[in-house]
From TrEMBL:
Organism: Haloterrigena salifodinae
Listed Gene3D superfamilies: 2-enoyl-CoA Hydratase, Chain A, domain 1 (3.90.226.10)
GO terms (BP aspect): L-leucine catabolic process
Domain CoA carboxyltransferase C-terminal: 359-599
Domain of life: Archaea
Biased composition (Basic and acidic residues): 341-354
GO cellular component: methylcrotonoyl-CoA carboxylase complex
UniProt-recorded name of the protein: Acyl-CoA carboxylase subunit beta
Region described as Disordered: 43-87, 338-367
Amino acid sequence: MELRVNTAATDQEAQAIAKALASHFGEEVELYPKRGDELLATAAPDESAIPADASEAAAEALEAATGDGGTENAASSGDGLGPTDREERLREEIDDILEGGPEKYRDRLSEQGKLFVRDRLDLWFGENGLQFEDGKFANFDSWHPSGREGEAESGDRLPADGLITGAAEFEGRDVHFMANDFTVKAGSMAEKGVEKFLRMQQRALKTGRPVLYLMDSSGGRIDQQTGFFANREGIGKYYYNHSMLSGRVPQICVLYGPCIAGAAYTPVFADFTVMVRDMSAMAIASPRMVEMVTGEDIDLDELGGPDVHARHSGSADLIAEDEEHARELVAKLIGYLPDNADEKPPQTEGRAPERSPAGIDSVVPQAPNRGYDMFDVIERVVDADSVLELRPEYGSEIITAFARIDGRPVGIVANQPKQRAGAIFPDAAEKAAQFIWTCDAYDVPLLYLCDTPGFMAGSGVEKEGILEQGKRMIYATSSATVPKQSVVVRKAYGAGIYAMSGPAYDPESVLGLPSGEIAIMGPEAAINAVYANKLAAIDDPEERAEKERELREEYREDIDVHRMASEVVIDEIVPPSELRDELEARFAFYETVEKDLPDKKHGTIL
């Protein structure tokens, strides 16, 4: 009988195992390593008993060899059968595939500051987190010596066709994943890899589980485009599937290198995109192609590096400092999201705020034009260490962030008075609209913290589409069916109160702090608009200034939050130190609220 054991067994353990099995099965036993033909030990059933000092070691080694501690598995239920040379050859082929592309390209990864793709998967999922892989043998016949076409030329290794797909456990959650192997033709995509990508997406639609895209791709293989570019089931189907998955399951993309042309669409179609500094970039065309088309001489980082997409395009939600940081960010991000649109976001144990709520009123200035940091309010309302801000450098006069209140995930949309007085510019409106829309898709309740003079005016913002982007923000707020709480922290002027889910926008509550004001415009602008001629007729400067002060105070009495509460425009004025408790109670009470939209195919505002 031939049996195979773990090669970690010592000579003494191997001999003890052979003796034990020969005695058990009543026939001669030969032990070989799991991989290889070297004879480790042999024993016949009439040999002496196992030495006492080897019995414990033999039992431990036997358990390691069989995988379950029993002889039945090792001996294939006693029939003496075990792995054949055919299986060994298969294992050797798999080991070769796992090595990735040509060695010279693997050696360059450390110079680029990034991990080999399979080491990256170990970082993300741990030793046992990768549950299975699909398509290891994709395109095998074209490059491997065992394949139909024989061994390819040096440098043309195509293991897994350069794309790894499968399922894994990440932070206790089952997820689908894909990952480019940059050692295989710079992570480029071709027919078999595209097929794997599409199958992974389609399976995610069936399972309702999140998708992680670990991107490091130079785009499609131009010299192999036949069969995958324009086909019904080709690379173009990626974005159709992205669209079908959008709002159904969370899609999170991390960029580890240059993602050009078609590869750049996956990150922008994903719900959330993380770029790694000094490593990743994305652009519709490479710098060389840009120079050919436009004559512009530009490097890749200037064209589409992290700073470009964090500050200017808004395509990057988060910027990681390195590979480990990217994983940390996604681990935190996914904690706010459900597996799919049919489930509730995961709740955790509640924690007290990082700063005392008692300080809120001191943080908010009474003067409507004085700046302050809205995070000084947020940190006194939400659970400690629970804030994850998205796109902080893009449209920075609005804050979009996930956080928790008593362990319950919420999406925060807050004006930032320290940035351009909290006025809403086109990029901020776009950012807010997309965030609101995403929170609504995944059933994350919304908290609006309003302190804005309204949408910005002027020829510059008109050219940038302030009306179009403002429309989208108001549309997103109007269409959101998740529970919404709106807090008038200080000024709520103009259409800003509409965009920030004011009374007309079906919030579950509109709360005011004693510093709050709601008006068409601020006192200074209103007095100038209504009484400009009357004030100009007063010749005495001191008399004119006094009259202006009187008019301003009269105007402020009409827009004061107390008047709004008296007229039942808002639901309640809340002592600032009790705001956290008030929000905690209201989010809990309205957790199961259901809202219906009018029966229609979909709206026309994007």
